[in-house]
Amino acid sequence: xxxxxxxxxxxxxxxxxxxxxxxxxxxxxxxxxxxxxxxxxxxxxxxxxxxxxxxxxxxxxxxxxxxxxxxxxxxxxxxxxxxxxxxxxxxxxxxxxxxxxxxxxxxxxxxxxxxxxxxxxxxxxxxxxxxxxxxxxxxxxxxxxxxxxxxxxxxxxxxxxxxxxxxxxxxxxxxxxxxxxxxxxxxxxxxxxxxxxxxxxxxxxxxxxxxxxxxxxxxxxxxxxxxxxxxxxxxxxxxxxxxxxxxxxxxxxxxxxxxxxxxxxxxxxxxxxxxxxxxxxxxxxxxxxxxxxxxxxx
Amino acid sequence: xxxxxxxxxxxxxxxxxxxxxxxxxxxxxxxxxxxxxxxxxxxxxxxxxxxxxxxxxxxxxxxxxxxxxxxxxxxxxxxxxxxxxxxxxxxxxxxxxxxxxxxxxxxxxxxxxxxxxxxxxxxxxxxxxxxxxxxxxxxxxxxxxxxxxxxxxxxxxxxxxxxxxxxxxxxxxxxxxxxxxxxxxxxxxxxxxxxxxxxxxxxxxxxxxxxxxxxxxxxxxxxxxxxxxxxxxxxxxxxxxxxxxxxx
Lengths: 298, 248
Prior knowledge:
The complex is a heterodimer. Chain A is an all-alpha fold.
């Protein structure tokens, strides 16, 4: 099972690696968007899918990563800036998680959303009052292929981590929390530590992706990089693909990025409507997500 | 050997708002004891277990495992100290296999505890319960009485010193209850395990245990051998009444 998953991942990664050499500028940019959401949704599902703690804070960590690289790229090398973005996002997640991870369900979801907004407005306020700017211009921008390879690396790392976490003690502990948190506790799982670690893991990926993607915009401001839509879309992709499955988030990330690129520019409302409709349909008729279809047929 | 009792509650009290579910209960349990806890509905039996296993934090009073204070600690700390429990309604991991349900405890609390041969791995625990044939089935697919056995197996996988059984016999037929009682005796005899057993069906339980604690409205009103407890006038008046008047 694990060997099969690793082979599939290797084949997909090789195909994605070859893409910039053969495909057009537009296709590569489309693929970059696919990879971004594959990394976000897969890492989100590793924690949120298995524990069923629905976090809406992806945009917070993405934005933190984006700001980190915007502020440090002049002085730090590319990969160091991305690593720092991941580290700061994870550190924020540890603090945020310690404060809200004892809450479940709607309360947890709403609070993570509230904290995202709090971070966004705090940064906007700080920039305006203290540094006297409304946004940041990115002057040091790496080559297109560097960005592509980095985000590809993050997407592969996210799926690879998911493959190895699932059968591990950490993965089992998270699955136990999702199935019956109190039962898992009485069997010896330190649920507090596991939840905070899982949340920080998710945040580190979102931070790294944000740090890598920020350079695609030459100018960033809090409204762009802390856009709640990044968080919502991550959640929707993971849920529609199947948050508890390994390949579901990746599959849905590709489908949705293609859908987004083809529809969003011409018919943005149609795109949002189809997203909403698919979510409703999948929650009602396919609670396991797109990736669960084959199991039903068997 | 440690001179402390295995588990000890001192003036343990649990309040929910205005309701005192457990009222200043003190009790100590020694290794290898087979103890029954009885009391009418609402007597505080399950809440007492919840406190003993860390699932609810006591409002006041103290809890010790081998002399170490545990009141207010998270449930996983109780499991690490060798206190395992079952739940009244089986709470098995429905999507995992029967063997994986047992494996869960082995990989967490059980990992840091001494390994007796009876509780060596999934197979030996399932053999103890007679669930070998179901090992590969998902836990959702086995019968309710098998799920009750699996509950016990999940608790045993933490390799405990103390096993808290919460109404494991409810809804089972006499033959199945006898099997669980034999298992309890065997675990006590071979592993020196302390078994504390709550049961609503009093007559069933009194035949199986050597010591009985009676709870009534949250308070402990009796603690002794089944014969002593049955003679206790407060117990007869408060709870047993006509049930004990019937020939056992």
